[in-house]
Design a protein that fits this description.
It is a single chain. The radius of gyration is 35 Å and the shape is elongated. The N terminus is likely disordered. The two termini are 57 Å apart. With 582 residues, the chain is of the alpha/beta class. Strand 4 and strand 5 form a beta hairpin. 62% of the residues lie in helices and 11% in strands. Strands 3, 6, 9, 10, 11, 12 and 13 form a 7-stranded mixed sheet that branches. The protein folds into 2 domains: 333 residues, ABC transporter type 1, transmembrane domain (ABC transporter transmembrane region fold, Up-down Bundle), CATH 1.20.1560; 232 residues, Rossmann fold, CATH 3.40.50. The protein binds adenosine-5'-triphosphate. The site of adenosine-5'-triphosphate has 12 residues, from strand 2 and helix 11. This is Protein-tyrosine-phosphatase.
Length: 582
Protein backbone atom coordinates (compact mmCIF):
# COMPACT_ATOMS: atom_id res chain seq x y z
CA UNK A 1 0.00 0.00 0.00
CA UNK A 2 1.28 3.47 -0.85
CA UNK A 3 2.20 5.68 2.07
CA UNK A 4 0.44 9.05 2.27
CA UNK A 5 2.26 11.74 0.33
CA UNK A 6 4.03 13.30 3.25
CA UNK A 7 4.59 10.05 5.16
CA UNK A 8 7.70 8.71 3.44
CA UNK A 9 10.28 11.45 3.95
CA UNK A 10 9.48 11.80 7.68
CA UNK A 11 9.93 8.04 8.06
CA UNK A 12 13.36 8.22 6.43
CA UNK A 13 14.11 11.15 8.71
CA UNK A 14 13.16 9.32 11.88
CA UNK A 15 15.30 6.37 10.88
CA UNK A 16 18.37 8.10 9.43
CA UNK A 17 18.21 11.74 10.52
CA UNK A 18 17.92 11.79 14.30
CA UNK A 19 21.65 11.24 14.83
CA UNK A 20 22.35 14.58 13.09
CA UNK A 21 20.33 16.69 15.53
CA UNK A 22 23.50 18.37 16.87
CA UNK A 23 24.75 19.31 13.39
CA UNK A 24 21.29 20.53 12.49
CA UNK A 25 21.20 22.77 15.57
CA UNK A 26 24.61 24.21 14.60
CA UNK A 27 23.41 24.84 11.04
CA UNK A 28 20.28 26.49 12.41
CA UNK A 29 22.28 28.88 14.60
CA UNK A 30 24.54 29.80 11.66
CA UNK A 31 21.45 30.47 9.53
CA UNK A 32 20.00 32.68 12.28
CA UNK A 33 23.25 34.68 12.31
CA UNK A 34 23.16 35.01 8.53
CA UNK A 35 19.55 36.16 8.69
CA UNK A 36 20.39 38.83 11.26
CA UNK A 37 23.16 40.10 8.94
CA UNK A 38 20.73 40.09 6.00
CA UNK A 39 18.17 42.05 8.00
CA UNK A 40 20.81 44.67 8.77
CA UNK A 41 21.78 45.01 5.06
CA UNK A 42 19.28 47.70 3.92
CA UNK A 43 19.68 49.92 7.00
CA UNK A 44 22.94 51.68 6.00
CA UNK A 45 21.36 52.51 2.63
CA UNK A 46 18.19 53.81 4.31
CA UNK A 47 20.32 55.85 6.70
CA UNK A 48 22.18 57.43 3.78
CA UNK A 49 18.90 58.30 2.04
CA UNK A 50 17.31 59.76 5.18
CA UNK A 51 20.20 61.45 6.95
CA UNK A 52 22.82 62.21 4.25
CA UNK A 53 20.59 62.91 1.24
CA UNK A 54 17.38 64.19 2.89
CA UNK A 55 18.89 65.49 6.15
CA UNK A 56 16.10 63.82 8.15
CA UNK A 57 16.90 61.56 11.14
CA UNK A 58 13.46 61.06 12.60
CA UNK A 59 12.43 57.72 11.07
CA UNK A 60 15.74 55.91 11.00
CA UNK A 61 17.00 54.21 14.19
CA UNK A 62 20.45 53.75 12.60
CA UNK A 63 20.66 57.36 11.47
CA UNK A 64 22.65 58.50 14.58
CA UNK A 65 25.17 55.60 14.12
CA UNK A 66 26.11 57.10 10.78
CA UNK A 67 27.75 59.98 12.61
CA UNK A 68 29.99 57.67 14.65
CA UNK A 69 33.19 58.73 12.83
CA UNK A 70 32.16 62.27 11.97
CA UNK A 71 29.03 64.11 10.87
CA UNK A 72 30.17 65.68 7.62
CA UNK A 73 28.35 64.12 4.66
CA UNK A 74 31.37 62.41 3.03
CA UNK A 75 32.44 60.75 6.31
CA UNK A 76 28.89 59.52 6.88
CA UNK A 77 28.81 58.18 3.29
CA UNK A 78 32.11 56.35 3.84
CA UNK A 79 30.84 54.93 7.16
CA UNK A 80 27.68 53.67 5.41
CA UNK A 81 29.68 52.13 2.52
CA UNK A 82 32.00 50.36 4.98
CA UNK A 83 28.99 49.10 6.96
CA UNK A 84 27.48 47.63 3.77
CA UNK A 85 30.73 45.75 3.06
CA UNK A 86 31.15 44.49 6.66
CA UNK A 87 27.53 43.28 6.86
CA UNK A 88 27.86 41.56 3.45
CA UNK A 89 31.12 39.85 4.50
CA UNK A 90 29.59 38.59 7.77
CA UNK A 91 26.51 37.34 5.89
CA UNK A 92 28.69 35.60 3.23
CA UNK A 93 30.86 33.90 5.87
CA UNK A 94 27.81 32.65 7.79
CA UNK A 95 26.17 31.59 4.52
CA UNK A 96 29.25 29.52 3.60
CA UNK A 97 29.45 27.85 7.03
CA UNK A 98 25.70 27.25 7.17
CA UNK A 99 25.72 25.70 3.68
CA UNK A 100 28.67 23.46 4.58
CA UNK A 101 26.96 22.16 7.71
CA UNK A 102 23.47 21.77 6.21
CA UNK A 103 24.67 20.18 2.94
CA UNK A 104 26.83 17.76 4.89
CA UNK A 105 23.73 16.53 6.76
CA UNK A 106 21.96 15.87 3.43
CA UNK A 107 25.00 14.10 1.96
CA UNK A 108 25.59 11.94 5.06
CA UNK A 109 21.94 10.98 5.45
CA UNK A 110 21.56 10.00 1.81
CA UNK A 111 24.74 7.90 1.89
CA UNK A 112 23.33 6.04 4.87
CA UNK A 113 19.98 5.53 3.16
CA UNK A 114 21.75 4.13 0.08
CA UNK A 115 23.93 1.74 2.13
CA UNK A 116 20.95 0.58 4.22
CA UNK A 117 18.85 0.03 1.09
CA UNK A 118 21.56 -2.03 -0.60
CA UNK A 119 22.22 -4.05 2.56
CA UNK A 120 18.52 -4.75 2.98
CA UNK A 121 18.00 -5.56 -0.71
CA UNK A 122 20.71 -8.21 -0.54
CA UNK A 123 18.99 -9.83 2.41
CA UNK A 124 15.54 -10.01 0.86
CA UNK A 125 14.36 -13.54 0.11
CA UNK A 126 14.81 -15.00 -3.35
CA UNK A 127 11.03 -14.96 -3.73
CA UNK A 128 11.27 -11.14 -3.78
CA UNK A 129 14.11 -11.05 -6.31
CA UNK A 130 12.36 -13.60 -8.54
CA UNK A 131 9.63 -11.04 -9.16
CA UNK A 132 11.81 -7.97 -9.42
CA UNK A 133 13.85 -7.10 -12.51
CA UNK A 134 17.54 -6.59 -11.67
CA UNK A 135 17.58 -3.28 -13.54
CA UNK A 136 14.59 -2.06 -11.56
CA UNK A 137 16.30 -2.84 -8.22
CA UNK A 138 19.54 -1.26 -9.47
CA UNK A 139 17.64 1.83 -10.49
CA UNK A 140 16.15 2.11 -7.00
CA UNK A 141 19.50 1.84 -5.22
CA UNK A 142 21.27 4.24 -7.60
CA UNK A 143 18.78 6.71 -9.06
CA UNK A 144 16.12 6.82 -6.34
CA UNK A 145 18.75 7.22 -3.62
CA UNK A 146 20.32 9.96 -5.74
CA UNK A 147 16.98 11.77 -5.99
CA UNK A 148 16.53 11.46 -2.23
CA UNK A 149 19.98 12.96 -1.84
CA UNK A 150 19.01 15.84 -4.13
CA UNK A 151 15.91 16.55 -2.12
CA UNK A 152 17.71 16.25 1.23
CA UNK A 153 20.41 18.65 0.10
CA UNK A 154 17.70 21.03 -1.20
CA UNK A 155 15.86 20.64 2.10
CA UNK A 156 18.86 21.60 4.19
CA UNK A 157 20.43 24.15 1.87
CA UNK A 158 17.28 25.77 0.40
CA UNK A 159 14.05 24.91 2.23
CA UNK A 160 15.18 25.29 5.85
CA UNK A 161 17.15 28.52 5.26
CA UNK A 162 14.35 29.75 2.96
CA UNK A 163 11.61 29.21 5.54
CA UNK A 164 13.81 30.77 8.19
CA UNK A 165 14.59 33.79 5.99
CA UNK A 166 10.95 34.24 4.91
CA UNK A 167 9.72 34.14 8.51
CA UNK A 168 12.58 36.40 9.61
CA UNK A 169 11.73 39.02 6.98
CA UNK A 170 7.99 38.72 7.76
CA UNK A 171 8.68 39.32 11.47
CA UNK A 172 10.99 42.22 10.66
CA UNK A 173 8.27 43.74 8.45
CA UNK A 174 5.79 43.41 11.33
CA UNK A 175 8.23 45.06 13.73
CA UNK A 176 8.90 47.82 11.21
CA UNK A 177 5.21 48.62 10.97
CA UNK A 178 2.22 46.36 11.51
CA UNK A 179 0.68 47.45 8.18
CA UNK A 180 3.82 46.38 6.27
CA UNK A 181 3.79 43.14 8.25
CA UNK A 182 0.20 42.40 7.29
CA UNK A 183 0.97 42.95 3.60
CA UNK A 184 3.94 40.56 3.84
CA UNK A 185 1.93 37.93 5.69
CA UNK A 186 -0.88 38.31 3.13
CA UNK A 187 1.44 36.89 0.45
CA UNK A 188 1.98 33.65 2.37
CA UNK A 189 -1.47 32.01 1.86
CA UNK A 190 -1.31 32.80 -1.87
CA UNK A 191 2.14 31.25 -2.12
CA UNK A 192 1.06 28.29 0.03
CA UNK A 193 -2.02 27.58 -2.07
CA UNK A 194 -0.10 27.61 -5.36
CA UNK A 195 2.70 25.57 -3.74
CA UNK A 196 0.52 22.81 -2.28
CA UNK A 197 -1.52 22.34 -5.44
CA UNK A 198 1.67 22.18 -7.50
CA UNK A 199 3.37 19.86 -5.07
CA UNK A 200 0.60 17.28 -5.49
CA UNK A 201 0.78 17.52 -9.27
CA UNK A 202 4.57 17.43 -9.13
CA UNK A 203 4.57 14.33 -6.95
CA UNK A 204 2.25 12.51 -9.34
CA UNK A 205 4.42 13.51 -12.31
CA UNK A 206 7.64 12.53 -10.53
CA UNK A 207 6.24 9.15 -9.51
CA UNK A 208 5.20 8.41 -13.09
CA UNK A 209 8.61 9.51 -14.34
CA UNK A 210 10.51 7.29 -11.91
CA UNK A 211 8.36 4.25 -12.68
CA UNK A 212 8.90 4.74 -16.40
CA UNK A 213 12.68 5.26 -15.96
CA UNK A 214 12.97 2.17 -13.78
CA UNK A 215 11.20 0.07 -16.32
CA UNK A 216 13.69 1.32 -18.93
CA UNK A 217 16.60 0.40 -16.65
CA UNK A 218 15.08 -3.08 -16.23
CA UNK A 219 14.90 -3.52 -20.00
CA UNK A 220 18.51 -2.39 -20.57
CA UNK A 221 19.83 -4.76 -17.89
CA UNK A 222 17.84 -7.67 -19.27
CA UNK A 223 19.04 -7.12 -22.84
CA UNK A 224 22.67 -6.64 -21.79
CA UNK A 225 22.53 -9.79 -19.65
CA UNK A 226 21.30 -11.69 -22.68
CA UNK A 227 23.44 -9.82 -25.24
CA UNK A 228 24.96 -13.00 -26.71
CA UNK A 229 21.43 -14.36 -27.33
CA UNK A 230 20.47 -11.06 -28.97
CA UNK A 231 23.52 -11.29 -31.26
CA UNK A 232 23.00 -14.98 -31.96
CA UNK A 233 19.42 -14.47 -33.12
CA UNK A 234 19.95 -10.96 -34.51
CA UNK A 235 16.85 -9.62 -32.70
CA UNK A 236 18.20 -6.12 -32.09
CA UNK A 237 15.17 -4.49 -33.74
CA UNK A 238 12.77 -6.25 -31.38
CA UNK A 239 14.52 -4.72 -28.37
CA UNK A 240 14.79 -1.34 -30.17
CA UNK A 241 10.99 -1.38 -30.47
CA UNK A 242 10.50 -2.32 -26.80
CA UNK A 243 12.93 0.40 -25.79
CA UNK A 244 11.25 3.01 -27.97
CA UNK A 245 7.81 2.07 -26.57
CA UNK A 246 9.00 2.37 -22.98
CA UNK A 247 10.91 5.58 -23.79
CA UNK A 248 7.64 7.05 -25.01
CA UNK A 249 6.10 6.60 -21.55
CA UNK A 250 9.22 8.13 -19.96
CA UNK A 251 8.84 11.07 -22.33
CA UNK A 252 5.15 11.51 -21.46
CA UNK A 253 5.93 11.47 -17.73
CA UNK A 254 8.90 13.84 -18.28
CA UNK A 255 6.76 16.31 -20.23
CA UNK A 256 4.13 16.27 -17.51
CA UNK A 257 6.83 16.98 -14.90
CA UNK A 258 8.26 19.78 -17.08
CA UNK A 259 4.79 21.33 -17.41
CA UNK A 260 4.24 21.31 -13.64
CA UNK A 261 7.67 22.86 -13.14
CA UNK A 262 7.11 25.54 -15.78
CA UNK A 263 3.77 26.56 -14.23
CA UNK A 264 5.19 27.04 -10.78
CA UNK A 265 7.24 30.22 -11.10
CA UNK A 266 4.70 32.34 -13.06
CA UNK A 267 1.99 31.43 -10.53
CA UNK A 268 4.25 32.37 -7.67
CA UNK A 269 5.41 35.57 -9.35
CA UNK A 270 1.79 36.61 -9.86
CA UNK A 271 0.94 35.83 -6.24
CA UNK A 272 3.87 37.80 -4.82
CA UNK A 273 3.65 40.76 -7.22
CA UNK A 274 0.25 41.55 -5.68
CA UNK A 275 1.98 41.93 -2.30
CA UNK A 276 4.73 44.15 -3.75
CA UNK A 277 2.13 46.36 -5.49
CA UNK A 278 0.07 46.78 -2.29
CA UNK A 279 3.19 47.60 -0.26
CA UNK A 280 4.32 50.16 -2.80
CA UNK A 281 0.88 51.78 -2.83
CA UNK A 282 0.37 51.82 0.94
CA UNK A 283 4.01 52.71 1.69
CA UNK A 284 4.17 55.36 -1.05
CA UNK A 285 0.96 56.96 0.28
CA UNK A 286 2.46 56.90 3.79
CA UNK A 287 5.65 58.66 2.59
CA UNK A 288 3.56 61.26 0.73
CA UNK A 289 1.52 61.77 3.91
CA UNK A 290 4.73 62.17 5.95
CA UNK A 291 4.10 59.05 8.04
CA UNK A 292 7.27 57.32 6.90
CA UNK A 293 10.57 58.39 5.41
CA UNK A 294 11.79 57.25 1.98
CA UNK A 295 14.48 55.18 3.72
CA UNK A 296 11.77 53.47 5.73
CA UNK A 297 9.97 52.52 2.53
CA UNK A 298 13.26 51.29 1.00
CA UNK A 299 13.83 49.00 4.01
CA UNK A 300 10.24 47.70 3.84
CA UNK A 301 10.43 46.93 0.09
CA UNK A 302 13.82 45.34 0.56
CA UNK A 303 12.39 43.13 3.35
CA UNK A 304 9.44 42.14 1.22
CA UNK A 305 11.81 41.33 -1.67
CA UNK A 306 13.95 39.38 0.85
CA UNK A 307 10.87 37.45 1.92
CA UNK A 308 9.81 36.67 -1.64
CA UNK A 309 13.27 35.60 -2.92
CA UNK A 310 13.48 32.42 -0.79
CA UNK A 311 9.89 31.62 -1.73
CA UNK A 312 10.92 31.84 -5.38
CA UNK A 313 13.91 29.56 -4.88
CA UNK A 314 11.67 27.18 -2.94
CA UNK A 315 9.42 26.96 -5.95
CA UNK A 316 12.44 26.09 -8.10
CA UNK A 317 13.38 23.17 -5.84
CA UNK A 318 9.83 21.98 -5.32
CA UNK A 319 10.16 19.57 -8.28
CA UNK A 320 13.28 18.20 -6.60
CA UNK A 321 11.15 17.59 -3.49
CA UNK A 322 8.42 15.97 -5.54
CA UNK A 323 11.02 13.64 -7.05
CA UNK A 324 12.48 12.99 -3.62
CA UNK A 325 9.05 12.05 -2.27
CA UNK A 326 8.36 9.71 -5.17
CA UNK A 327 11.79 8.09 -4.71
CA UNK A 328 11.37 7.86 -0.92
CA UNK A 329 8.19 5.91 -1.58
CA UNK A 330 10.15 3.42 -3.72
CA UNK A 331 12.96 3.09 -1.18
CA UNK A 332 10.55 2.59 1.74
CA UNK A 333 8.88 -0.14 -0.34
CA UNK A 334 12.22 -2.02 -0.24
CA UNK A 335 12.99 -1.26 3.43
CA UNK A 336 9.51 -2.46 4.43
CA UNK A 337 10.02 -5.90 2.89
CA UNK A 338 10.83 -8.49 5.57
CA UNK A 339 14.40 -9.76 5.18
CA UNK A 340 15.27 -13.45 5.37
CA UNK A 341 17.26 -12.92 8.54
CA UNK A 342 13.97 -12.14 10.30
CA UNK A 343 13.15 -15.86 10.30
CA UNK A 344 13.07 -16.88 13.97
CA UNK A 345 16.10 -19.00 14.80
CA UNK A 346 15.02 -21.44 17.52
CA UNK A 347 18.40 -23.04 17.86
CA UNK A 348 21.12 -20.53 18.68
CA UNK A 349 24.50 -21.00 17.00
CA UNK A 350 26.18 -21.83 20.34
CA UNK A 351 23.74 -24.67 21.09
CA UNK A 352 24.31 -26.40 17.75
CA UNK A 353 27.28 -28.61 16.95
CA UNK A 354 29.97 -26.81 14.93
CA UNK A 355 29.63 -29.50 12.26
CA UNK A 356 26.40 -31.29 11.37
CA UNK A 357 26.41 -35.04 10.80
CA UNK A 358 24.60 -34.42 7.51
CA UNK A 359 21.31 -36.32 7.90
CA UNK A 360 18.51 -34.82 5.78
CA UNK A 361 14.76 -35.52 5.90
CA UNK A 362 11.88 -34.26 3.79
CA UNK A 363 8.58 -34.85 5.60
CA UNK A 364 5.41 -34.19 3.55
CA UNK A 365 7.24 -31.27 1.91
CA UNK A 366 5.32 -28.99 -0.41
CA UNK A 367 6.72 -25.97 -2.24
CA UNK A 368 4.72 -23.43 -4.20
CA UNK A 369 6.27 -20.49 -6.02
CA UNK A 370 3.30 -18.13 -5.86
CA UNK A 371 0.61 -19.97 -7.77
CA UNK A 372 3.02 -22.56 -9.23
CA UNK A 373 3.50 -25.83 -7.39
CA UNK A 374 6.99 -27.33 -7.56
CA UNK A 375 6.80 -30.11 -4.92
CA UNK A 376 3.78 -31.84 -3.42
CA UNK A 377 3.98 -33.94 -0.28
CA UNK A 378 7.53 -35.24 -0.76
CA UNK A 379 8.85 -37.76 1.79
CA UNK A 380 12.51 -38.60 1.54
CA UNK A 381 15.19 -39.53 4.03
CA UNK A 382 18.94 -39.23 3.38
CA UNK A 383 21.46 -40.70 5.80
CA UNK A 384 24.63 -38.90 6.79
CA UNK A 385 27.39 -39.67 4.29
CA UNK A 386 24.97 -40.91 1.63
CA UNK A 387 25.41 -39.61 -1.92
CA UNK A 388 22.09 -39.52 -3.66
CA UNK A 389 21.23 -38.49 -7.18
CA UNK A 390 17.77 -37.06 -7.80
CA UNK A 391 16.46 -37.86 -11.26
CA UNK A 392 13.14 -37.31 -12.95
CA UNK A 393 11.46 -35.32 -15.71
CA UNK A 394 12.04 -31.60 -16.22
CA UNK A 395 10.12 -29.48 -13.76
CA UNK A 396 9.47 -32.29 -11.27
CA UNK A 397 11.18 -30.26 -8.55
CA UNK A 398 14.75 -31.59 -8.25
CA UNK A 399 16.43 -28.17 -8.07
CA UNK A 400 13.70 -26.98 -5.73
CA UNK A 401 14.49 -29.86 -3.35
CA UNK A 402 18.15 -28.72 -3.31
CA UNK A 403 17.13 -25.09 -2.72
CA UNK A 404 15.05 -26.18 0.28
CA UNK A 405 18.01 -28.02 1.85
CA UNK A 406 20.22 -24.95 1.57
CA UNK A 407 17.46 -22.76 3.02
CA UNK A 408 17.20 -20.57 -0.10
CA UNK A 409 13.45 -21.06 0.29
CA UNK A 410 11.37 -22.36 3.17
CA UNK A 411 8.87 -25.09 2.32
CA UNK A 412 5.29 -23.89 2.02
CA UNK A 413 4.13 -27.21 3.54
CA UNK A 414 5.75 -29.97 5.62
CA UNK A 415 9.27 -29.74 6.96
CA UNK A 416 12.87 -30.20 5.80
CA UNK A 417 15.19 -31.29 8.62
CA UNK A 418 18.96 -31.36 8.95
CA UNK A 419 20.12 -33.66 11.75
CA UNK A 420 16.51 -33.55 13.01
CA UNK A 421 16.23 -29.71 13.11
CA UNK A 422 13.75 -27.99 10.76
CA UNK A 423 15.61 -25.63 8.39
CA UNK A 424 13.00 -22.94 9.15
CA UNK A 425 14.23 -22.86 12.75
CA UNK A 426 17.96 -22.91 12.06
CA UNK A 427 20.12 -19.79 12.13
CA UNK A 428 21.09 -18.86 8.56
CA UNK A 429 24.73 -18.43 9.55
CA UNK A 430 24.94 -22.03 10.82
CA UNK A 431 23.12 -23.36 7.77
CA UNK A 432 25.61 -21.60 5.45
CA UNK A 433 28.44 -23.38 7.27
CA UNK A 434 26.81 -26.81 6.89
CA UNK A 435 25.63 -26.69 3.28
CA UNK A 436 27.63 -25.79 0.19
CA UNK A 437 26.82 -26.14 -3.47
CA UNK A 438 28.18 -26.34 -6.97
CA UNK A 439 25.55 -25.13 -9.42
CA UNK A 440 25.01 -25.51 -13.13
CA UNK A 441 26.83 -22.26 -13.83
CA UNK A 442 29.21 -20.99 -11.17
CA UNK A 443 28.84 -17.26 -10.65
CA UNK A 444 32.18 -15.50 -10.31
CA UNK A 445 32.61 -11.93 -9.12
CA UNK A 446 35.07 -9.42 -10.56
CA UNK A 447 38.36 -9.96 -8.69
CA UNK A 448 41.14 -12.54 -8.62
CA UNK A 449 40.70 -16.31 -8.86
CA UNK A 450 41.86 -16.53 -5.23
CA UNK A 451 39.23 -13.95 -4.15
CA UNK A 452 36.56 -16.03 -5.81
CA UNK A 453 37.68 -19.24 -4.14
CA UNK A 454 37.90 -17.46 -0.78
CA UNK A 455 34.32 -16.23 -1.21
CA UNK A 456 33.06 -19.27 0.75
CA UNK A 457 35.47 -18.69 3.66
CA UNK A 458 36.91 -15.15 3.82
CA UNK A 459 39.28 -16.01 6.70
CA UNK A 460 40.98 -18.88 4.83
CA UNK A 461 44.80 -18.81 4.74
CA UNK A 462 46.60 -18.42 1.41
CA UNK A 463 47.84 -22.00 1.73
CA UNK A 464 44.29 -23.32 2.25
CA UNK A 465 43.09 -21.47 -0.86
CA UNK A 466 46.00 -22.91 -2.82
CA UNK A 467 45.23 -26.41 -1.52
CA UNK A 468 41.55 -26.15 -2.54
CA UNK A 469 42.60 -24.80 -5.94
CA UNK A 470 44.95 -27.73 -6.38
CA UNK A 471 42.36 -30.34 -5.38
CA UNK A 472 39.75 -28.80 -7.71
CA UNK A 473 42.30 -28.73 -10.56
CA UNK A 474 42.16 -24.93 -10.77
CA UNK A 475 45.93 -24.79 -10.43
CA UNK A 476 46.25 -26.75 -13.70
CA UNK A 477 45.01 -23.77 -15.73
CA UNK A 478 45.87 -21.00 -13.25
CA UNK A 479 49.58 -21.86 -13.57
CA UNK A 480 49.41 -20.79 -17.23
CA UNK A 481 47.86 -17.41 -16.34
CA UNK A 482 50.11 -14.34 -15.85
CA UNK A 483 49.58 -14.05 -12.10
CA UNK A 484 48.41 -17.58 -11.25
CA UNK A 485 45.65 -17.54 -8.64
CA UNK A 486 46.09 -13.79 -8.33
CA UNK A 487 45.00 -13.25 -11.93
CA UNK A 488 42.04 -10.90 -12.14
CA UNK A 489 38.93 -12.07 -13.94
CA UNK A 490 36.05 -9.94 -15.22
CA UNK A 491 32.46 -9.75 -14.02
CA UNK A 492 30.73 -13.14 -13.97
CA UNK A 493 34.01 -14.90 -14.76
CA UNK A 494 34.48 -13.40 -18.23
CA UNK A 495 37.77 -14.74 -19.55
CA UNK A 496 37.30 -18.28 -18.22
CA UNK A 497 35.76 -21.29 -19.99
CA UNK A 498 32.66 -23.02 -18.58
CA UNK A 499 34.75 -25.93 -17.28
CA UNK A 500 37.28 -23.56 -15.66
CA UNK A 501 34.49 -21.64 -13.93
CA UNK A 502 33.08 -24.91 -12.59
CA UNK A 503 36.49 -25.88 -11.23
CA UNK A 504 36.68 -22.55 -9.38
CA UNK A 505 33.20 -23.36 -8.02
CA UNK A 506 34.42 -26.74 -6.79
CA UNK A 507 37.45 -25.14 -5.13
CA UNK A 508 35.11 -22.67 -3.44
CA UNK A 509 32.95 -25.55 -2.16
CA UNK A 510 36.02 -27.50 -1.04
CA UNK A 511 37.27 -24.52 0.95
CA UNK A 512 33.85 -24.17 2.64
CA UNK A 513 34.43 -27.72 3.95
CA UNK A 514 30.70 -28.19 4.69
CA UNK A 515 29.35 -31.64 5.65
CA UNK A 516 26.54 -31.37 3.07
CA UNK A 517 27.25 -30.78 -0.61
CA UNK A 518 24.60 -30.01 -3.22
CA UNK A 519 25.39 -30.48 -6.89
CA UNK A 520 22.86 -29.04 -9.32
CA UNK A 521 23.76 -30.31 -12.79
CA UNK A 522 27.38 -29.13 -12.32
CA UNK A 523 28.56 -30.65 -15.62
CA UNK A 524 25.51 -30.02 -17.78
CA UNK A 525 27.03 -27.36 -20.04
CA UNK A 526 30.42 -29.04 -20.52
CA UNK A 527 31.92 -31.13 -23.30
CA UNK A 528 33.28 -34.56 -22.43
CA UNK A 529 36.90 -33.43 -21.89
CA UNK A 530 35.91 -30.59 -19.58
CA UNK A 531 33.40 -32.88 -17.84
CA UNK A 532 36.11 -35.43 -17.13
CA UNK A 533 38.27 -32.84 -15.37
CA UNK A 534 35.35 -31.37 -13.43
CA UNK A 535 34.21 -34.84 -12.33
CA UNK A 536 37.75 -35.51 -11.08
CA UNK A 537 37.50 -32.34 -8.95
CA UNK A 538 34.01 -33.28 -7.74
CA UNK A 539 35.19 -36.74 -6.69
CA UNK A 540 37.50 -35.05 -4.18
CA UNK A 541 34.76 -32.72 -3.05
CA UNK A 542 32.15 -35.39 -2.29
CA UNK A 543 34.44 -37.71 -0.30
CA UNK A 544 33.19 -38.16 3.28
CA UNK A 545 30.18 -35.80 2.91
CA UNK A 546 26.44 -36.10 2.45
CA UNK A 547 25.76 -35.32 -1.19
CA UNK A 548 22.51 -34.55 -2.97
CA UNK A 549 22.85 -34.06 -6.70
CA UNK A 550 20.64 -33.56 -9.71
CA UNK A 551 22.13 -34.87 -12.92
CA UNK A 552 21.47 -37.03 -15.91
CA UNK A 553 25.16 -37.50 -16.71
CA UNK A 554 26.35 -41.12 -16.28
CA UNK A 555 29.78 -39.94 -15.10
CA UNK A 556 28.18 -38.19 -12.12
CA UNK A 557 25.58 -40.88 -11.49
CA UNK A 558 28.41 -43.33 -10.85
CA UNK A 559 29.42 -41.21 -7.84
CA UNK A 560 26.00 -41.69 -6.23
CA UNK A 561 25.39 -44.38 -3.63
CA UNK A 562 21.64 -44.19 -4.31
CA UNK A 563 19.57 -42.94 -7.22
CA UNK A 564 16.16 -41.53 -6.37
CA UNK A 565 13.64 -40.98 -9.14
CA UNK A 566 11.00 -38.31 -8.62
CA UNK A 567 7.65 -38.35 -10.41
CA UNK A 568 4.78 -35.96 -9.95
CA UNK A 569 1.08 -36.69 -9.65
CA UNK A 570 -1.67 -34.16 -8.94
CA UNK A 571 -1.37 -34.80 -5.23
CA UNK A 572 2.15 -35.97 -4.61
CA UNK A 573 5.80 -35.91 -5.66
CA UNK A 574 6.58 -39.64 -5.46
CA UNK A 575 9.91 -41.27 -4.86
CA UNK A 576 10.40 -44.28 -7.10
CA UNK A 577 11.99 -47.38 -5.58
CA UNK A 578 15.53 -46.43 -4.63
CA UNK A 579 18.23 -48.26 -6.48
CA UNK A 580 21.49 -49.16 -4.70
CA UNK A 581 24.52 -48.05 -6.60
CA UNK A 582 27.74 -49.34 -5.24
N1 LIG B 1 12.01 -19.23 -8.95
C1 LIG B 1 10.92 -19.80 -9.42
N2 LIG B 1 9.78 -19.11 -9.53
C2 LIG B 1 8.66 -19.68 -9.98
N3 LIG B 1 8.58 -20.97 -10.36
C3 LIG B 1 9.67 -21.71 -10.29
C4 LIG B 1 10.91 -21.19 -9.81
N4 LIG B 1 11.84 -22.16 -9.84
C5 LIG B 1 11.21 -23.26 -10.30
N5 LIG B 1 9.92 -22.99 -10.58
C6 LIG B 1 8.91 -23.93 -11.06
O1 LIG B 1 8.89 -25.04 -10.19
C7 LIG B 1 8.82 -26.23 -10.90
C8 LIG B 1 10.01 -27.13 -10.50
O2 LIG B 1 11.20 -26.50 -10.97
P1 LIG B 1 12.63 -27.14 -10.68
O3 LIG B 1 13.64 -26.25 -11.31
O4 LIG B 1 12.76 -27.45 -9.26
O5 LIG B 1 12.52 -28.49 -11.49
P2 LIG B 1 13.68 -29.49 -11.95
O6 LIG B 1 13.15 -30.84 -11.70
O7 LIG B 1 14.96 -29.14 -11.32
O8 LIG B 1 13.72 -29.17 -13.50
P3 LIG B 1 14.93 -29.37 -14.55
O9 LIG B 1 15.19 -30.85 -14.64
O10 LIG B 1 14.38 -28.83 -15.79
O11 LIG B 1 16.08 -28.59 -14.00
C9 LIG B 1 8.78 -25.89 -12.37
O12 LIG B 1 7.43 -25.92 -12.79
C10 LIG B 1 9.31 -24.49 -12.43
O13 LIG B 1 8.67 -23.77 -13.45
Amino acid sequence: MRQPLAGNMPRLFRRFGTRYRGLFALGFVLRLGEMAADLATPWPIAAVIDRVLAGNESHNPLGPLLGLFGTDRMTMLTTAAAAVVVVALVSAALDYLGDRVMNAIGERMSTQIRCATFAHLQRLPLSYHNHQAVGESTSRVITDCDRIKGSLVALFSTLCPGVLAASGYATALLLLDWRFGLIGLGCIPLVYLTGVRNHRLGHRAARGQREAESSLAGLVTEVLNGISTVHTFGRHELHDEHFAARSASTLRAGLMAADVQARRLPLLESATSIGVAVLLWVGGAGVLGGQWSVGHLVVATSYLAGMVTPLRSLSKVSMVFAQGHASAERIIAILDQPAVTHVPATWRVGTLPARAQGRIEFVAVAMDYGDRSALRHLDLSIDAGERIALTGPNGVGKSTALALISGLYLPTGGVVRIDGCPTADLPRQWLHQQVTAVLQDTFLFAGTLADNIRYSRPDAEVAEVAEAAKAALVTDFADDLPAGLDTRIGDRGVGLSGGQRQRVGIARALLADAPIVLLDEPTSGLDSDAEEVVVAGLTRLVAGRTVVMTTHRPSLLTMATRIVGLTATDKQTCVTAPRGHG
